[in-house]
Amino acid sequence: MTANTGTTVMTLLQALNLALMEEMERNKDVVVLGEDVARNGGVFRTTEGLMAKFGEARVIDTPLAESGIIGAAIGMAMYGLRPVAEIQFSDFIFPAMDQIVSEMAKLRYRSGGEFTCPVVVRTPSGGGIRGGHYHSQSPEAYFCHTPGLMVLAPSTPEDAKGLLKSAIRGNDPVIFFEPKRIYRTVKGEVPNDPDFTVPIGKARIARAGKDVTVISWGAMVHTCLEAAEKAARNGVDIEVVDLRSLVPLDEEAVLNSAKKTGRVVVASEATRTCGFASEISAFLAEEIIEYLEAPIVRVTGYDTPFPYALEHVYMPGPNRVLDAVQRVMTF
Amino acid sequence: MATHKKPENLVRVLPLEGLPATTAAPKLSAEQHRDMFRSMLRIRMLDEKMMLLQRQGRIAFFGPSAGQEAAIVGSGSVARAEDWIFPALREAGVALHRGFPLEQYFGQLFGNVLDPQKGRQQPMHFSSGAVHYVSLSSPIATQLPQAVGAAYAAKLRGDGTVIFAYLGDGATSEHDFHSALNFASVWKAPVLFLCQNNGWAISVPFEKQTASDGIAIKASAYGMPGIAVDGNDVLAVRATTQMAMDRALRGEGPVLLEFVTWRRGGHSSSDDPTRYRDEDQIPPWVLVDPLQRYRDYLRSANIVNVADEQIIVTELQSAMDAALAIAENADRPSMDTLFTDVYAAVPPHLQRQMDSAGQDTTGRAEGAFPL
Q1: Is residue A242 helix, strand or coil?
Q2: What per-residue confidence (pLDDT) applies to B1?
Q3: Which residues of B are catalytic?
Q4: What is the arithmetic mean of pLDDT over A173-180?
Q5: Number of domains composing chain A
Q6: Which end of chain B has the lower number of beta carbons within 10 A, N or C?
Q7: A65 vs B contacts (CB less than 8 Å)
Q8: B239 to chain A, minimum CA–CA distance in Å?
Q9: Considering the domain boundaries, does residue A5 fall inside one?
Q10: What is the pLDDT of residue A105?
Q11: For B280-301, how does the pLDDT look when each residue is reduced to its tens digit (9 = 90+)?
Q12: Same domain membership, residue A64 and residue A163
């Protein structure tokens, strides 16, 4: 067995680091920039070892300004580089909203395709780390609402590696949400092949089932899987669909599962109103309501700022997912 | 309205009453002078013609540049073909100087198939890959950190490109101005920050924009040189931009140049400056027409005489008329351009929207359901 075949068991964080290593090795245009990403290897150590291997010109500790980081990354990409910009916590992405929404997302369109900026913005998101309001939010819906961006949210080491590599090799700007709660707690087999990628726009059936479809993404997928095991012990067979890619959405996978089970729950950590769970619900209601045996039920965070002391109440756990499953099963 | 306490200190080649020259004229060939003068005349002529078209309802919007021709052409003419321009609102004259075809310029204003952007932006938001003139967006100062990123990339590749980043005085209040100057100086990026200080951000005068004595002084906090220039003196603009360019090419990093000029017209065709501007408070020197000032110099130096100018004007006029006739009759962009270029390839959800678009505009009858 050569190094290019088989798999290695690693954490999600290690998988991300490996993806960056391999892509920087593969293409000298790939550069990494952000706060604390070089010498310190990132506050979560996702970029550890990159500076030592590729030098300070390609692994850049930037001044502390998110708008500057994304703006500079856009210019680098326009000129031909493949920048991977880190926003240290997705809660700090908002100073860069103008650059992301007005510039990065629109450049290809507004210039008639003459200027493009394939920037990958990596950003840890989600709660469950006792981080309080400014280290816990899940802001993906803002970006799903912006044409021109691809929005990815992997939940396994294999997908983290494969999707990040696809994002870096692709020609579109990507917001890449990393499930920081499970950076180190989730381990899995990751293919050794440096050309292994996961296609953008394809969902994954995380657990096959026949009674209820539970759709989720990011760290919440694991909560749903936990709920599914509990349900199985009580005779309910849940299918968990891990979207992986929110934009573009794998409409076919979502439709097929929902048609098969006729009962749908959408689970997300983000606040409820106008969240991406609502978009999935609306999409299914519009397309296949005749297949449904029950209303589509959303399980989400509350419409409050993300709390500190009551984090465990705010974040949907397996029991809240099961409450929703029960509701669609007994409708 | 006084953006500088001591206007006599601005870098100046062409003296004015009470404002002596502070530096020597740059060494330029007669041909270079004629090119610059032609580009300045083109801006003035287009301005007059396009404002007329806007008032006739033939284009939706226009942003005039009259009075700023020296700042625009004096700086933009320093850029070489391989250099990149990140413009603000009033630098279309730089694109034209670099060979951006007039058909495309008019095509952009009309929003038709001649526009490289496929009619996707409001008039004045020009873009041209061919002349490295980056698509303008309306949010203020966003182009500045992007210009720094492009400069970083050029430096990383070692290809000697210099990035020209334009901004207005209003842009200096934005966070992206700060980020850009800060990043650029830390990185010693080959980027020139070229501020056209025309005294006004729509209706807000300079003294309400910033309490500092001009813009150039702000550079010192970022550890880069800042130079305040008489922006109506095309030779001073040209000389300082060339100096900044040479410095960037030596790897010494960015410079902030402030061209002190004056917006003769409104902010745009939608603006009425009589609502907020008191013309008699303006120091007379900023009102001196940069075009006339250059014309006087060219005549006294025997580079462009009256007959020469007439030939240039006639050429420009016939080129304008010909391009306008072609552009005004060009087709509207096709329906698919609504959906292409959002992504590199059209994703399935957009394909479905594309397939159904426009169907609501056909054959609906009144008075019965289903219609």
Answers
A1: strand
A2: 47
A3: 263, 267, 276
A4: 98
A5: 2
A6: C
A7: 175, 178-179, 182-183
A8: 27
A9: no
A10: 98
A11: 777 888 888 999 999 999 999 9
A12: yes
Q: What is the 3-state secondary structure (H, E, C) of chain B?
A: CCCCCCHHHCECCCCECCECCCCCCCCCCHHHHHHHHHHHHHHHHHHHHHHHHHHCCCCCCCCCCCCCHHHHHHHHCCCCCCCEEECCCCCHHHHHHCCCCHHHHHHHHHCCCCCCCCCCCCCCCCCECCCCECCCCCCCCCHHHHHHHHHHHHHHHCCCCCEEEEEECHHHHCHHHHHHHHHHHHHCCCEEEEEEECCEECCEEHHHHCCCCCCHHHHHHHCCCEEEEECCCHHHHHHHHHHHHHHHHCCCCCEEEEEECCCCCCCCCCCCHHHCCCHHHCCHHHHCCHHHHHHHHHHHCCCCCHHHHHHHHHHHHHHHHHHHHHHHCCCCCCHHHHCCCCCCCCCHHHHHHHHHCCHHHCCCCCCCCCC
Partner-chain contact A110 B117, CB within 8 Å: yes
Give the domain CATH number at A274.
Answer: 3.40.50.920
For residues B319-344, average pLDDT: 96
Residues A35 and A176 in one domain: yes
**What does the pLDDT average to over B54-82?**
95
Do both A53 and A103 map to the same domain? yes
Look up A135 and say whether it is catalytic.
Answer: yes
A174 & A228 share domain: no
Residue among A239, A226, A234, A242 nearest A321 (CA): A226
Q: Which of A191, A223, A257 is the C-terminal boundary of a domain?
A: A191
A108 and A14 in a common domain: yes
> Over 80: is that where the pLDDT of B215 sits?
yes
* Interchain pair B127, A110: CB under 8 A: yes
**Co-location of A172 and A300 in the same domain:** no
Q: From the list A70, A77, A78, which residue is nearest B134 (CB)?
A: A78
pLDDT at B88 over 80: yes
Nearest CA in chain B to A55: B156
Domain end point (choices A191, A219, A235) = A191
Q: Which two tokens stand for residue B4?
A: 């500088």
Mean pLDDT of A102-119: 98
Q: How many CB contacts within 8 angstroms connect chain A with chain B?
A: 149
**Would residue A161 count as lying in a domain?**
yes
Q: Does A115 sit within 8 Å of B134, measured CB to CB?
A: yes
Q: Do residue A165 and residue A48 come from a single domain?
A: yes
Distances A176 to A108, A159, B124 between C-alpha atoms, Å: 19, 12, 34
Distance CA A264, CA A257 (A): 9
Determine, yes or no, domain membership for A53.
yes
Domain range for residue A55? 10-191
Question: Does a structural domain hold residue A27?
Answer: yes
Q: Are residues A106 and A163 in the same domain?
A: yes
Q: Once rounded to an integer, what is the mean pLDDT over residues A70-94?
A: 98
Q: Which residues of A132-141 are buried (b: 16+ CB within 10 A; e: fewer)?
A: eeebbbbbbb
What is residue B363's predicted lDDT score, i.e. its pLDDT?
Answer: 58
**Structural domains in chain B, sorted by start:** 25-275+287-327 (3.40.50.970), 329-359 (no CATH)
CATH of the domain at A129: 3.40.50.970
- How confident is the model over B135-168, as pLDDT tens digits? 999 999 999 999 999 999 999 999 999 999 999 9
* pTM attached to this predicted model: 0.97
Closest CA to A33 of A82, A99, A101, A97: A82
